[in-house]
């Protein structure tokens, strides 16, 4: 299983906003810190906003912040929301044309593998990823408070 860049960048945005916590961030700021495209990030942030994961504030002093508490953002649910196609192979798709589908056991095995992958993500929230984030914060150029409360 490989997540799309769209989902990867969505996770990165949420991690960034979760680490920053206070104040608003901007798309150019986040794009710069991760060295990724602002245009691509704009589309992702719009989707995260539509889903309620990100709160956007318009205007001159506007920006982005988490739209919910980190403990309320489940990674399994998020991946399901951001990934537009979880078909690992053609036989998972409607209109499958593989000639061996009816007798092939690969579909069942890959289905179990995908379910296991998502089950692991279902056990994790953004808050779990933000425990002791000092190293990541330093790498992203964020201020690292000395006595930061738990997420």
TrEMBL record:
Pfam families: Rrf2
The keyword Hydrolase belongs to this UniProt entry's keyword annotation: no
Domain of life: Bacteria
Coiled coil: none
Statement: the UniProt record of this protein carries the keyword DNA-binding: yes
A GO cellular-component term linked to this record: cytosol
GO molecular function, one term: DNA binding
Keywords recorded for this protein, A-Z: DNA-binding
PANTHER family: HTH-TYPE TRANSCRIPTIONAL REPRESSOR NSRR (PTHR33221:SF4), WINGED HELIX-TURN-HELIX TRANSCRIPTIONAL REGULATOR, RRF2 FAMILY (PTHR33221)
Alphabetical list of NCBIfam families matching this protein: rrf2_super
Protein's name in the database: Rrf2 family transcriptional regulator
